[in-house]
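Predict structure. Input: TauD/TfdA family dioxygenase, 327 residues.
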Amino acid sequence: MKSVNIRDIGEQYSWGSFIDGVTWDNINDPGLRAELQQLFEDRGLLIFENMEPSPKMQVELSKVFGPLKDHPTKSVPRANKDLEPGVIELHSLPTELDETLHGIAVVNGKPVVSYLPWHFDHTYNDELNRAGVLRAVIQAPEGGRTGFADGIELYNAFDPELLAKIEDLNAIYTLDTRLTQMRFGRTFEINGDPAYMAGVVAEARRFPRAIHPMVWTRTSGEKVLHVTGFSAEGIENHENPEGDALMEEVCQEVNRKANGYFHNWRPTDMVIWDNWRLLHAVEGCHPKYERCMHRTTIKGDYGLGRFENGKKIGEVDRDIAPLDLPA
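Output follows.
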């Protein structure tokens, strides 16, 4: 069996590993799979290098860590319907800038597309999927990196007085993931929503709000700071000016303290991250560049999330403001 090479992502990080040498010759070896599963549990982020750049290999690598899960929203494009469920495509085509900058974020004074702030996936769902596996099909020649930040490291770096206020609190999240509607922790500007968000908002009318703890404890004993302003509507039982001020303070502390690793993509890279532990982000790229990512989702649930008031999908029809979308 071909051996694999494992190394840390850097001295400044207490988590994350690079792995080189996983091929079709060894990917189904039980010993290697067990080693990779334990490494994932220990390190939270695994970056596989020199992989065969194919959807089939991405699916096979994903299945090392658990069964695949289809994406919970129907409006997200699927990459390959002939493969296992859950392969979604995140595709940004080249766009000409205009005066309105509709759907384009401005970060540090620069217009970018495919931008996402620090967040964890499926905040709006009662179940929190185990992990995501990502690869770059088309990467922008500059920008477009994906960032990762460890929630254990974040907890240990956080302001102790601020931690004491939120240790036992829960955040409320919605499926309405428009950046224009992001209330907490914003460090960007944006004017208007891209047209594709209409499908997401339509689905949001059927989704109840989801509740997740702002801090949780792993079975191994470490505490994880796991909160995002992206899609957040506030703090459970504290939806008032004081609660909103606390949520803003927490989200801005995340922005200050996140020790982010930002990955420069190559076509042969595949990355898996622990969605229960890590936050991730996308720095965005210039609108003139095309960027296409394929993503799989690993089933699982940490058992701490729930829908508000015990409701289920389809049992609500919340009043969401009319969309202001470009023609």
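The two ends are 56 Å apart (CA to CA).
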